[in-house]
Amino acid sequence: MVSTDRLLAFAAMSFLLIVVPGPSVLFVVGRALAQGRRAALTTVLGNTLGAYVLVVAVALGVGAVVERSVVVFTALKLVGAAYLVYLGVKAIRQRGALQASFTGEGPGRGSLRTLWDGFVVGVANPKTIVFFAAVLPQFVDPGRGHVALQMLLLGLVFNVVAIVSDSTWGLIAATARGWFVSSPRRLAMVGGAGGVAMIGLGVSVAVTGRKD
Predict the structure, then answer these.
(1) Mean pLDDT of 190-206
(2) How many CB atoms lie within 10 A of CB 124?
(3) Pick from 177, 194, 205, 210: which is nearest to 27 by CA?
(4) Among the listed residues 185, 129, 159, the one whose alpha carbon sits nearest the alpha carbon of residue 46
(5) pTM higher than 0.85, yes or no?
(6) Whole-angstrom Cα distance, residue 173 to residue 197?
């Protein structure tokens, strides 16, 4: 299986990638500000599941196709970007309902739906796709055999680091959100800001990335 030095080196590289806010982190922060701690942590779980789907895809050889095909890469990136913009517009339109969600007067957002939203963002994250397709295979030792299992283990290490980092971002954002709870106007501002952030993130994902 993977040697300890390779695991540690991969964990360090994963941390450097994850700690810098990208699509997943910004999405978690937006959810924390708009809906609170529980939604943020549920989103983190969804992101993690989505990221691990990418690990499985790389282990099965799909990652190489995505990395080499501009069409496949661009299509997946644009789908993720469009979904972020959709969620951002929806958050802005529903910003006035935030106060009701705190008092229990409005319809709650199901945990499964929140989990699914996070999953979609996680599985369509272009930064993670490129990292898994181009970097993860470099830490595999073919001489030890079980290459696919090595990739799955390395991907698990990545996701553990991501859970810790993204959860920290989400909890910090959710704590700051408490200041807004007492004022419906502040809450509307939070919802609107979170929506604008998601839209901006979607646009950013759509226009950045590979140029080849």
Answers:
(1) 73
(2) 23
(3) 194
(4) 159
(5) no
(6) 14
Q: How far apart are CA 59 and CA 55, in angstroms?
A: 6
- How does pLDDT run across 62-96, given as a tens digit for each residue? 656 655 676 776 776 777 678 778 877 877 777 66
d(CA 66, CA 133): 8
- 123 CB-side CA count, 13 A: 15
List CB contacts of 39: < 8 A, sequence separation 6 or more.
31, 32, 109, 114
Query: Are the CB atoms for 125 and 55 separated by under 8 Å?
Result: no
What is the token pair recorded at 22?
């990208």
- pLDDT tens figures, 142-190: 777 777 888 889 999 999 999 999 999 889 878 877 665 666 666 667 6
Give which of 127, 151, 159, 138 is closest to 21, Cα–Cα. 127
Q: Which of 166, 163, 77 is nearest to 123 (CA)?
A: 77
d(CA 7, CA 177): 36
Domain positions in the chain: 4-10+24-207
What distance in Å separates the CA atoms of residue 78 and residue 68, rounded to the nearest whole number?
A: 17
